[in-house]
Every structure is written in C-alpha cells, then in structure tokens.
Write a structure and sequence with these properties.
Blueprint (H helix, E strand, L loop, with lengths): L2 H28 L7 H32 L4 H33 L9 H25 L1
Helix pairs in contact: 1-2, 1-4, 2-3, 3-4
Length: 141
C-alpha cells in the first residue's frame, strides 16, 4: 500500500466513524437525555454538526489530495466522489433549510417539522455507504 493509499484509508475510516458516531448515535440520543429540551438539543446539535461538517470538509480535501498524490482505482474515485457530493449537497442545500428552521425554534417560535431532516439522513446513509466502499476498496488493493 502506498503512503497516499494509507493516508486515504485512515482518512476514510476516521470520517466514517465520526459520521456514524455523531449522526446515528449522538444526535438521536441527546433528545432522550433527561432535561434536554428541543431548544437545548437544537443548540447543541448545531454546534456539533458545524464541527462535524468542518472536519468532513477537511477529510474530503485530504482524500482529494491523497488521490492526486497516488492515482487510485476508478472504483475508489467513484465512491469517493459520491461521498463528497453527498457532503456538498448537505452543506449547500439541506443545512441552510435546517438552520432556518432551528433559528426559528431557538428564537422561541413554533416551526413545523421539516422534511429536510429526512433528506439529511438519506444523504448521511449515502455518505456512509460510499465511505465504506472507498475504505474496503482501498484495503483490497
């Protein structure tokens, strides 16, 4: 395994672990904790997801840099592009809608449930599958 592939593998599995831990474990559990209101949960969630998204952008850049340093197989490139595209869609289209709704809730207004949560979760699932594929393909080389 080349140094670029080793770095890409570490980046992919770290990214995958963070998405699984935050999106599919921390996010739903925080609202079940005693005393956590929707407003408090949204405030915490915004901070956590902002940090996750910053880390994800760094991971995506590292993955692109590793791909440029040592050209990976076509499957790795395709799956990596899917993961990065899912992240881009979340940041450009879904997060702004979620932020507008959470702004209203945090300001004390009633805001109806948003279908954007479902879109975000669907993109998280796409990203998880793509990252898993990238990692497996990198390990198989």
């Amino acid at each position: 395994m080349t140094a670029a592939a080793a770095i890409a593998t570490a980046v992919v599995f770290t990214w995958l672990g963070m998405v699984l831990a935050i999106s599919f474990l921390e996010a739903p559990l925080k609202f079940r904790a005693p005393g956590v209101t929707v407003r408090i949960g949204l405030g915490i969630g915004r901070l956590v997801f902002r940090a996750l998204n910053i880390a994800e952008v760094i991971f995506a850049a590292a993955l692109i840099a590793a791909a440029c340093a040592g050209p990976p197989a076509a499957g790795v490139v395709a799956a990596g592009a899917v993961a990065i595209a899912a992240l881009a869609l979340q940041l450009a289209l879904v997060r702004p809608r979620l932020n507008r709704r959470s702004d209203r809730v945090l300001a004390g207004q009633d805001a109806p449930r948003s279908s954007a949560h479902h879109a975000y979760i669907a993109l998280e699932l796409v990203k998880v599958i793509a990252l898993l594929a990238v990692g497996v393909l990198l390990l198989a080389r």
